[in-house]
Specification:
single chain, mainly alpha, 3 helices
Length: about 80
Amino acid sequence: MLTFNRSKLQTMRTNIVLDDKLVKQALKLANAKTKREVVNIALKEYVESRQRLKVLEMFGSDGIDPNYDYKAARG
């Protein structure tokens, strides 16, 4: 379960139209008390999900520069 920490939150005020049924479902699933809280939780989960996808794309790509000189790095 994600935690929501207001003390470290920078905010941007906006007005958006949300699907009421989705918001009600999300409030229940996230055990959130407010629409603001559930939107922040959803945004955080979205960002974390996309970041994980980037890591998965890198998996198997070796990630090592073919010109890397490990002997020189030993000093």
